[in-house]
Amino acid sequence: MLLASRRRLRAEVLIVLGLSLGQSAVYSVVQLLDKMTRAPLSEATSTLNRSQSTREYFDLTYQLLDIIFALVPVVLVFYFLSSHSQGGREGGSGSGFTRLGFNFARPGKDALQGLGLAAAIGIPSLGLYAAGRALGITTAIVPSGLEAYWWTVPVLILSAIRHGVVEEVIVVGYLLDRFGKFGWSTPLAIVVSAALRGSYHLYQGFGPFIGNFAMGLVFAWIYTKTKRVMPLVIAHALLDIVAFVGFSLFGKAVGLG
Questions:
Q1: Closest Cα to residue 248, out of 51, 43, 42?
Q2: CB 83, CB 89: distance < 8 Å
Q3: Which of 151, 170, 205, 257 has a CA positioned 20 to 30 A from the CA of residue 68?
Q4: CA distance 207 to 132
Q5: What average pLDDT does range 4-32 have in this prediction?
Q6: Quick one: how many helices (H) and strands (E) in the chain?
Q7: Do the Cβ atoms of 166 and 21 come closer than 8 Å?
Q8: ∠ at Cα 103 (172, 12), nearest 5°?
Q9: 94 secondary structure, DSSP code
Q10: Strand segments (E) across 93-180
Q11: Burial of 225 by CB count in 10 Å (0-12 exposed, 13-18 middle, 19+ buried)?
């Protein structure tokens, strides 16, 4: 019975990853190889939040649809984590939100922890980006390729929140829960979670892989202590908001040289 349960959970994890960040990791590896075989990484550019139409309101529609559908695997994760989805066998309170600490049970503390994490991660990330560019192992990163419309900043904020929710809920909360049920040790689960986080950033170069791997180790370790993804979501969203909106408002501050 235990073996059958683990097989079901492995299939479940593969489905979730195949619909979300596992798929992103595969594409990221292919994109990295594509860039490396065209020119040195230092000459390549990685554009986030690309425009999808030259027509303003169609572009807005595409952006919102991308955000909405990217959250569907998160909904699937919470369904799998809810006890009713497995006839009560999952245990706990029956709520996936409660199990992962993705709720507003302690808004003040979560916000402060998220802000502290964002500061602790964000400042070294700038140095790592600069070092990666200098070493030629990181592409030029353009956080926003959107035109300047009235909706650009709100959409970038929503996009940042989307990334925070998708990555922290799936890569940290969900995977650490499932890896524990596989019988994996906590250190192994943390390393695999961090490696996945790094892998779907490989299209930006090896520097972002290293940076996101390190971030993944820290975030996953914190989660094992707090059992709450909400501070991680807040920290991640803040980091992306600063990058996306800052670039959109102040131009090529990240530098393409």
A1: 51
A2: yes
A3: 205
A4: 5
A5: 94
A6: 11, 2
A7: yes
A8: 40
A9: S
A10: 140-142
A11: exposed
User: d(Cα 220, Cα 148) in Å, to the nearest integer?
Assistant: 36
| Alpha helices for 136-151 (secondary structure H) | none
Q: Virtual CA dihedral for 217, 95, 90, 86, nearest 10 degrees?
A: -120
Question: Residue 225 is which amino acid?
Answer: K
> How large is the greatest C-alpha to C-alpha distance in the chain, in angstroms?
58
DSSP 8-state class, residue 87: T
Residue with tokens 């980091």: 239
* Exposed/middle/buried for residue 178 (C-beta within 10 Å: 0-12, 13-18, 19+): buried
Report whether 182 contacts 205 (CB < 8 A). no
Residue 47: DSSP 8-state: E
Q: 178: part of which helix (H) or strand (E)?
A: helix 175-182
Q: Across 82-133, where does the E strand assignment appear?
A: none
**Would you state the structure tokens that stand for residue 178, as one six-digit string?**
């499932």
Indicate the DSSP class of residue 143.
S
Closest CA relative to residue 64, chosen from 143, 146, 170: 146
Read off the pLDDT of residues 204-254 as tens digits, 9 standing for 90 and up.
999 999 999 999 999 999 999 999 999 999 999 999 999 999 988 876 544
Which is nearest to 46 in space by CA: 133, 131, 122?
133
What letter represents residue 168's amino acid? E
By 3-state DSSP, what share of the chain in percent is helix, strand and coil, each rounded to 5?
A: 75, 5, 20
CB atoms near residue 71 (< 10 Å): 16
